[in-house]
């Protein structure tokens, strides 16, 4: 065999080895790339799975917290503080930030010569922060009045319709959790509801409705003191109407306590026009609050004058209301 043939065989052998080596290397590289891609996909899937797991855990925790919050509210005993409705006195409490309190009230003011029923009165309250409450209320009123003419002839007049609206802003400026004492101011304005008819017959300047002319301003100071088994509420304020230059003084004092975790009872004494002997009116009132659920309650009261006012007659007062508290869902 010549040298040329030997060299040719050698190179052919090397080329065969090189080809085999390149094939092995390419196989290893391709296998490695496939494995790398598979690992990356697995890692991505694991990351996504872990993220979803975390989100799921957070959602479950939030749902559990909401459930716990509702459970805590349900476990809280009924509110025993004297407040409106159904009482005359207002307490210092507010609904809380973003919360609503809706009261649907049925009440009656009954005397010998006149009756007035609110069927119903809608009382809507909204909380701003922990210390402020906005209020709007408007009633549908049915009245019956007995009158006597100059000859002593008795006539009965009846009327119904939307009566005056009232807006208010309650601000609790002092709140001591340790002592249970809180103070608030509650300015309110009462005015003729737009579109409502004035009381009185057309020949008397009225429209046959039940709304009153003028604007009335009230500025009461509220006090609430809570103890372990009881609470007290006190109000002191002034009231003035644009139809009367007189400034009236009103005051009240009430006590409340729980009989059970679902039932509270309340009592109060309240007075209007206390600075005018000929128009002074004082009444005694007893009421209850029955908790239906964490967000619902039924309240009621019955009261009677112990000192009559300007009309010279003692009145009987009856109130029954449904209370609903709710908080919009947070996103």
Summarize the structure in words.
A hairpin with an 8-residue loop joins strand 13 and strand 14 (316-326). The chain is built from 1 helix and 14 strands. Strands 1, 2, 3, 4, 5, 6, 7, 8, 9, 10, 11, 12, 13 and 14 form a 14-stranded antiparallel β-sheet that branches. The protein is globular, with a radius of gyration of 38 Å. It starts with a helix and ends in a 5-residue tail after the last strand. It has 331 residues and is an alpha+beta fold. The protein has one helix spanning 3-75, and strands at 100-110, 114-128, 132-148, 154-162, 165-176, 181-185, 188-191, 216-226, 230-241, 244-258, 263-272, 281-293, 296-307, 316-326.
Q: Got a strand count?
A: 14
How many helix segments? 1
- What is the mean predicted local confidence, pLDDT? 82
Q: End-to-end distance, in Å?
A: 91 Å
Could you give a short description of this structure?
The protein is of the alpha+beta class and 331 residues long.
What labels describe this entry?
331 residues, alpha+beta, globular, disordered N terminus, 14-stranded antiparallel sheet, single chain
Topology at a glance:
Elements: H1 3-75, E1 100-110, E2 114-128, E3 132-148, E4 154-162, E5 165-176, E6 181-185, E7 188-191, E8 216-226, E9 230-241, E10 244-258, E11 263-272, E12 281-293, E13 296-307, E14 316-326
Antiparallel strand pairs: 1-2, 1-14, 2-3, 3-4, 3-5, 5-6, 5-7, 6-8, 7-8, 8-9, 9-10, 10-11, 11-12, 12-13, 13-14
């Amino acid at each position: 065999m010549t040298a040329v043939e030997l060299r040719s065989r050698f190179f052919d052998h090397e080329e065969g080895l090189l080809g085999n080596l390149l094939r092995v290397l390419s196989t290893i590289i391709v296998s490695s790339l496939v494995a790398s891609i598979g690992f990356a996909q697995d890692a991505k899937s694991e990351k996504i799975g872990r993220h979803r797991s975390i989100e799921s855990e957070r959602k479950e925790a939030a749902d559990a917290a909401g459930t716990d919050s509702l459970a805590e509210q349900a476990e809280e005993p009924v509110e025993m503080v004297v407040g409106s409705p159904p009482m005359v006195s207002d307490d210092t409490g507010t609904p809380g930030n973003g919360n609503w309190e809706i009261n649907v009230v049925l009440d009656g003011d009954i005397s010998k010569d006149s009756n007035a029923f609110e069927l119903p009165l809608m009382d809507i309250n909204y909380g701003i922060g922990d210390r402020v409450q906005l209020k709007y209320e408007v009633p549908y009123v049915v009245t019956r009045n007995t009158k006597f003419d100059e000859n002593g002839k008795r006539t009965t007049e009846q009327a119904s319709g939307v009566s005056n609206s009232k807006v208010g802003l309650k601000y609790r400026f002092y709140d001591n959790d340790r002592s249970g004492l809180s103070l608030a101011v509650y300015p309110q304005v009462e005015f003729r509801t737009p579109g409502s008819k004035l009381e009185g017959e057309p020949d008397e300047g009225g429209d046959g409705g039940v709304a009153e002319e003028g604007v009335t301003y009230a500025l009461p100071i509220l006090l609430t003191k809570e103890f372990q088994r009881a609470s007290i509420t006190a109000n002191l304020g002034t009231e003035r109407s644009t139809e009367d230059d007189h400034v009236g003084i009103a005051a009240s004092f009430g006590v409340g306590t729980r009989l059970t975790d679902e039932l509270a009872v309340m009592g109060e004494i309240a007075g209007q026009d206390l600075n005018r002997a000929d128009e002074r009116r004082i009444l005694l009132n007893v009421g209850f609050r029955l908790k239906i659920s964490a967000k619902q309650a039924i309240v009621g009261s019955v009261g009677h004058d112990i000192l009559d006012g300007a009309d010279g007659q003692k009145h009987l007062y009856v109130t029954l209301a449904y209370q609903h508290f709710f908080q919009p869902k947070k996103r």
